[in-house]
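Protocol step 4 of 6: structure prediction from sequence.
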Amino acid sequence: MPVRLARGWHLLTAVVSGGSLLLQLALVLASDNDTVLIRLIRLVSYFTIQSNLIVTAVAIMLVRDPRRDGAFWRVARLASVVCIGVTGLVYVAVLRDLFVLGPLDRIANAGLHYATPVLAVLGWALFGPRPRVDLRVVRLTLAYPVLWLAYILARGAIVHEYPYPFVDVDEQGYAAVFINCLVVTVVFLALSGLVWLLDRSAPPAPSQRRATVSGQSAGREAP
């Protein structure tokens, strides 16, 4: 796919994901439950919010340079695809019927859990950039959800509040939460492995050279 189309797709992804985040933030700030600080901490503790933040940041960088590369970048790019993919899958399979949403909440929810996962995953499949993924990148990427889980369990032990029912130790106990997290881990591994295999076998993308490449010499292909 040509660079111009790639740039347009990433821009759309950034607008949808970033706009949904801003709407969700506005709804949280408009609420009168607890203090503003507690509401903000609660908001950013959701894996959905964190994965959408990663997608938005990565998409903005790809708008500027659809062929971006670098050691940290490769991990960020894979995380943006895998984490938002798992976010969408887990929400559809487990969480979508658990909450009663108002009209604006439904708009934010659709952007965060449906539109952004589709745009981000399909955008990677169509526009890459690739090749970018190896086993080291996969290992480093998977460290992030592990750290998130450690944070959620530590915070929950202190405030007795968990962002999702399947990690609620107070309600389910550690044994059930361990099994739930094991299932989600399998989903992470499967999606990461699929992205790794496709990255190795699919043709490089985007297909056009840019006149200049940020952080690289002009027109140079990334490995």
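Step 5 (inspection) to follow. Residues 169-201 form the longest helix (33 residues).
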